[in-house]
């Protein structure tokens, strides 16, 4: 078990595919692995929705999200993804923590950060597909609830994520990211940790580093 760590959250760029890939291969079944072209498409599409967490040189978690519309899903490995003209939710494509670092509060932090991105993008809802038995996590940390798809096309898209996949939606309750700090995230020796490269606008070059 990891007991001494100092995590940093930073924007994930097109150069980070190998780090992204190492994390996803640690955390997901083969069905959910995404190829490089799909990764690059999402980074290009919405740079402010791609974040990676590192413990020193070690990649440990990531968040991939982008504006989308409610009651629609994004297929895995979609390389021709386009942002909708009138988005009404932030779609969390993936929040992923490697096995060794799970249950330490990092997922909670990623969910809080997604809310922050939704806030900056003026989106009132968040949506996702829960897989690998993560629905209780989403209920607990993000107040997501399951929405059963009605449209056959939506049901087919959901089925492609496996038999236990659930489409979940949450109404955002916005709060400052500083208030989401979890004691579990503190470095056990220096009592210092979680540096956040906060995104201040909707463009990737307008950022400020903040120690919390
Ligand atoms: C799901 C995941 C993102 C959660 O991240 P995490 O860092 O392990 O979660 P946290 O430590 O922040 O947990 C927050 C709370 O949710 C609970 N929780 C975490 N994972 C859970 C799960 N799978 N089921 C039920 N509860 C869970 C924790 O016990 C904790 O509760 P507490 O605050 O009362 O102790 C992470 O386990 C993961 O990446 N799993 C593999 C990839 C995956 O399936 N991602 C989800 C894709 S939809």
Structure, described:
With 212 residues, the protein is α+β, with helices and mostly antiparallel strands. It has a single domain, classed as Aminopeptidase, CATH 3.40.630.30. It has helices spanning 17-27, 36-45, 106-120, 135-142, 152-159, and strands at 7-11, 50-55, 58-68, 89-97, 125-130, 145-146, 166-171, 195-199, 207-211. Strands 6-7-5-4-3-2-1-8-9 form a nine-stranded mixed beta sheet, sandwiched between helices.
Question: What order do the SSEs take from the amino end to the carboxyl end, as H and E?
Answer: EHHEEEHEHEHEEE
CATH class, anyone? Answer: Alpha Beta
- Using the alpha-carbon principal axes, give the shape: globular
- Strand count: 9
Record the SSE blueprint.
Layout: E1 7-11, H1 17-27, H2 36-45, E2 50-55, E3 58-68, E4 89-97, H3 106-120, E5 125-130, H4 135-142, E6 145-146, H5 152-159, E7 166-171, E8 195-199, E9 207-211
Main attributes of the structure:
single chain, 212 residues, alpha+beta, Aminopeptidase, nine-stranded mixed sheet, 5 helices, globular, disordered C terminus, binds coenzyme A
Produce a short descriptive summary.
This protein is α+β, with helices and mostly antiparallel strands and 212 residues long.
